Amino acid sequence: MQSGPCDAPPTVSVVIPVKDDAAELARCLLALARQTHLPDEIVVVDNDSTDASADVARHAGARVIACPQPGIPAASAAGYDAADGDLILRLDADCVPTATWIATVVSAFERHPDVAAFTGYARFIDGPTLVRTPLALVYFAAYLFVAVPVLGHLPIFGSNAALRGRAWRDVSATVHRADPLVHDDFDLAFHVGARYRIGYLPASSMGMSMRPFSSGRALVLRVHRGLRTITVHWPDDLPPRRWQRVILHRYSRPRR
C-alpha cells in the first residue's frame, strides 16, 4: 500500500487530541519541535478544553481543530480527517517522544510498503521510579493478551501509533467516532486490521504518563471501555468469524 509518489518522501502529520492538558501538551510539543525529522504539520484537536490548551498549541505553531463532541474517539477522528499528510502519526498530549520517533516511523513505512499502520511501546515517565518499568510492561502485555486473540492480529496503541492517510480514509466512515465509551485506538485496529497489515515498531520510543494507574476508578473505566470496544463489533467480529475473514483477506490480496 503506497502513500504517494515513490520518488518523493512521505509528508507527515502528527495528531494530538487534548482536553485540559495545557502543561502536558506544551511538553509534548517541545519534544516534537526537537525531532530529527520534523513533521510537516501538527494537528491539535481541542476537545472542548476549559484551560489554555488551544493557546498553547497555537503558540507552538500547531493547527488547532475544535471538536466540541465529547470523547477521545471523536477528537482523534476529527484530527485524522483534518490531517493532510501521507502518514498520520498519533500520540496523546501527555506523551513525550524521543528525538528520533518520527524518523523511525517514517523509515519503517518506507521499508514496508505493505504495512498500513505501525504501533509501538511506551514507557512511564512519571510516578514512582521503581515501578515505572514493571507497570508499563504489565499494562502493555495486558492489552496484547486481550486484544490479539480478539482481533486476530496486533492492536494499535494510541500513545504511539501511525497509519497511512489512505488507510484512514478507507475506514473513516466505519469507526465508532460518536461513542465516547470505546477506546479509539482499539476500535481503529478493528477496522484497519480487517483490511490491512498492522506492524510493531519496537524501536519507536515513547514516554507517557502513568495516568492509567492513577486510581482504581481509572483502571475500571479503561477495562469497561475495552470490553465495550469489543462488544460493539459483535456479532460480525466474534473471534472465529473475524479470524477467518482476516486470514482470507490477507492471503487473497496480491503480494507486492
From TrEMBL:
The keyword Membrane applies. The chain crosses the membrane at residues 136-157. Residues 13-133 form the Glycosyltransferase 2-like domain. Keywords: Membrane, Transferase, Transmembrane, Transmembrane helix. InterPro entries: Glyco_trans_2-like, Glycosyltransf_2, Nucleotide-diphossugar_trans. One of its GO terms (molecular function) is transferase activity. CDD domains: Glyco_tranf_GTA_type. Coiled coil: none annotated. This is Glycosyl transferase family 2. Pfam families: Glycos_transf_2. Signal peptide: none annotated. SUPFAM superfamilies: Nucleotide-diphospho-sugar transferases. It comes from Tersicoccus phoenicis. PANTHER family: GLYCOSYLTRANSFERASE, GLYCOSYLTRANSFERASE 2-LIKE DOMAIN-CONTAINING PROTEIN.
